[in-house]
Amino acid sequence: MRNPVPSKTEIRGKVHKPFIHDSAIKQVSGDAAYIDDIPEAKDLLHLYIAQSTKAHARLLKMEVEAVRNAEGVVAVYTAADVPGINDASPVLGDDPVFAEDLVEYVGQALFVVAGETLEQARSAAKLAVIEYEELEALITVDQAMAAQSFVLPTKELNRGNATEALEKADCRLSGRLEMGGQDHFYLEGHISLATPKEDGDVHVHCSTQHPTEVQHNVAKFLNIPDHSVVVEIRRMGGGFGGKETQGAWFAAMAALAAMDTGRPAKLRLDRDDDMIMTGKRHDFVLDYDVGFTSDGEIEGVHFTFASRCGRSADLSAAINDRTIFHADSCYYFENIRITSHRCKTHTVSNTAFRGFGGPQGMVAVERMMDAVAHNLGMDPLVLRKKNLYGKTERNVTPYQMEIEDNIAPDLMAELEEKADYQARRKAIHNFNKTSPVLKKGISLTPVKFGISFTTTFLNQAGALLHVYTDGSVMLNHGGTEMGQGLFIKVAQVVAEELQIDIERVKITATTTDKVPNTSATAASSGSDMNGKAAQAAAKTIKDRLITFAAAKYEISESQVRFKPNRVEIGDVKSLTFAELVQEAYLARISLSSTGYYRTPKIHYDAENYSGRPFYYFAYGAAVSEAVIDTLTGENRITRVDILHDTGKSLNPAVDLGQIEGGFIQGMGWLTTEELYFDQAGNLKTHAPSTYKIPACSDRPGIFNVEIYEAGENVENSIHKSKAVGEPPFMLAISAFNALTDAVASVGDYQNFPVLDAPATPERILSAVAKQQSAREGHPRRAAE
Amino acid sequence: MRDTIRFVHKGQIRELENIDPTQTVLNFLRYEAALTGTKEGCAEGDCGACTIVLGELDAEGQIRYQAVNACIQFMPMLDGKQLLTIEDLKHRDGVLHPVQQAMVNQSATQCGFCTPGFVMSLVAERLGRNSSVTVDINNVLAGNLCRCTGYGSILEAAREAADDETVDHITKELDQSVQLLKELQKDGSLTLNWKGRRFFAPKSCEELAELIATYPQATLLAGATDVGLWVTKQHRNLETVILVTRIDELKTIDMHKDGLTIGSAVTYSAAWEKLAEIYDDLGELVRRIASTQIRNSGTIGGNIANGSPIGDMPPALIALNATLNLQGKSGIRQIPLEDFFIEYGKQDLQEGEFVRSVSLPPANEKSLFRNYKISKRFDQDISALCGAFSLVIQYIVVEDIRICFGGMAGTPARAFNTENALKGKSWSMENIVTAMAAMDKDYTPLTDMRASSEYRLQTAQNLLKKFFIETTSPEVDTRVLEERNAQYA
Fold first, then answer.
1. Chain centre to alpha carbon of residue A621
2. What ipTM was predicted for this assembly?
3. What is the pTM of this model?
């Protein structure tokens, strides 16, 4: 880009101002390069993975001679060909890259074929002779629970005495809810491109949210030092958590082929293979038992969660922990017991997905709140407000963390008003009385989401900043760009710190040889941590420049002031940033710095679920209105109003995109997106023809989204902003609850609906039918 | 005879030889032409990341620009057309196309992988008015999936671009493009032969009949919205392919005193307006079939000829008593459309025959018609079931009723027991309830990932009830789609 004219009054790309995504112009022109867009080398090898067709079986025979001899095949690799450790897992070492003597899900990698063309590799893979001895396959949570099959031990959190509170409560009810999983459906599937380098090193372009972990896994797999592996990613075509861990499998395979043949090797999963071979959001089964007073105070709660983790642990420990941490949402439960089962099934290992277990915990509590309100014949919003955390008392979470900035009550009240909740609720009730076929529902639900990795040591980040002698800046940090706008936000932080126009800051690809030992770009923490690290680097250089200028011009350091694109030296002299940099260079001042950040205040005892796992909370609330067709179960969300807390937003344009996109993605999870496994463990919905993420017309016709103006982080976060990647996803729980409310109207609000997620037309119709048969039978309301 | 394909690209006629006839346009662009702006998201025409725009001369000599999915278009289908990709939009001086600029201004990109497809869909709409019936932007974009934005910013961009009256360079160069396309029109039929794969694009029905006689096992290709997936998903090797869309005789729509006849190579987009004129629900059905990109390629003839039990068009056509016109050696054979579907995978197509056209009788003013498509998602989804109802009432008595469902059996199938329970009876809720029960005898649907057997049957029965309510109590709201507060319409 040519040098633009420097702005004089205010830098371009200032924090708290909307600014376009750094890649926007390239993206609309087709010029933004994703890994598969990198020009292919003439000797590029194309890899294709042969997959298990059985969910659980012993591998009796796997003969690949015919594959090796097929036309165009250069090499075939199996577990026996792995020079190092045949594993690419995030934590426990339980994710073999190639199956050894056992397969544990349909789609598990058996071997990989390297061919001159993808077609040749693919058709050769079919020539292998595989013999299986089938074993019993556990596909569903219920099957795993019956077999007591777990990837990790069951965990429990206790605060107060839930058992006693439940027994003593005036009113008590229990219920069950199934929540389906969710495919990430990033538009760009998993891909790795490995190139051999001298000294036996390897460079890997990998579509990953966690280059460091890919680096470590590739090194371990190839039995070479970490320093021999460079992993690079400029941008992903979407991640959403799906590229936090499992991209390492494909990077390892591509790196192996590259090392062995001395040729570059590319492994790109097509849509079907991506959906079959890689993990998803965990499906959950929830059982709740709740005791409450007749005026709606919750006295005791017992949640029992069981999740489908799939064949290995992957990140299931932290994901299920986050479910525990979010089963309170915005509500104070003095006596609560949360039981969490982590089921092992013979399905693909489920993994991180926006919200990371939090959404399932919050769907649970919001379902319970609706059930209680319904039981008492109360407006669910009244019940919710009654049980909110207090600001100075009743403000300690079940895991003993004090909530210091509870803005949920204020935010909810503001939204209730803005969305005209009460009047619309009345109107809906009137509509339902006179409409025999269509029924409507409404719901307001809040969000409180804990920000930080619950694995404390992951809360660190690094950055690298170079200032060149023309005053232009190169920025690098450990965060990865998957569309969320991290790169532009961090660049804004640097531009702000140095008071230079944002075009002067070059955003560069994330790569393990610039900033090492990074954490995944996950847990919504990307701009919090990398922003702080980059700010620290910029500050270091700025401080050097100030010290230098003060000494050179014989003034105090406070008299060196950074103004837009210039530096004032006392009252007499003003230099451009470039001029000062030039002078500093000539005076032999270092113009390069790293920056480092570790999140303060957090500590946490994982055994007892006690401490401060989160630096702070992000809040939000949404009102959704739904309409259902009681003859077909068809439904849609017709209006949504959102008020969301981003603190003091670093970039409102980017944050609005996260809020809207998060909501729609959450709505998809709870409505149209259904993962359908057959009894043999085959995923039957492995492409957009069968797996339905929201389309354009599914966006509610009225969709009012606002950033909470009063929002400001009470902690010392980057420019007082708050993380925004995950929290808005859970605003969509209001959509699911609005659908539930619409179903309840069928039985004249006498029976609480039995509606599981996703609320497909089929599930809605089934819930409607139960309402109708209950209505014809015996209307019942426990409190009466 | 020609063995090279010729198309207009970047202001010139491009001629390619040695073409693999089933190579997709997307793979050609990405891996041979170094045009990687067009993306692969699904390779089945569902996500729209691969959207390109094709221009074709219409009967008046104007270029009709349409968005299509490059991932399931075979290379020879470019022949005779103008190709526009995302790389062709930016002006030579670097100025963005108004659609591109609007997408930037509205922060309508996040990960950016779907972005080129959205831009191309909006450009096609701007250039050509993709669809003749509606300009609802939701329909224009139904075939483009975005996982990041939630679509709001993209809709804003669409609106901003629509308000921008800047004449883009594609429009400025229209005359030149017309001249080039006219040049291509002079080309005769096409014959490709590549490593044992044969491809023919005849220009007349006679030629087509001869080719079918010579290659009885050949795959007939129209829009490739189904056959394309045989290659991209099933990785099948198609030895002989005959493209029927260069035959003008198969692309006609005739309104005549005996009704409407639609040639087998007429696309959904081309037929939409006419069908919508007959019954509102026929128009709504076409709107709900796939996406703009797919409707621009897919043909009604193809939807019939492939014999799918879940094709959306046959149930409606059968309920409306359509006739299928099959052309063979001994001329045209006419059969009721419903007789064409013998059983799953088997159609009444004799050797040497091909689908010439389908004819609908004129709309009876007394007849009431409704069509209901049930799917998990409203747009761009395959039906769990799709039901069509055609009713003639005489003094509250059912004179005739035809009910046909897709998704309920191995073929599109009539509900004869249900119909018989209603014929000659009064059109009353009491009789509807009896008829709903009779439907148990008509269908034994399957359970699959789209819906369970129980849901399919229950919903089919309920749709009869809905049809009754809609025909007797028009004041009752019965459709959630009309409740959508279409702010963006």
1. 19
2. 0.97
3. 0.97
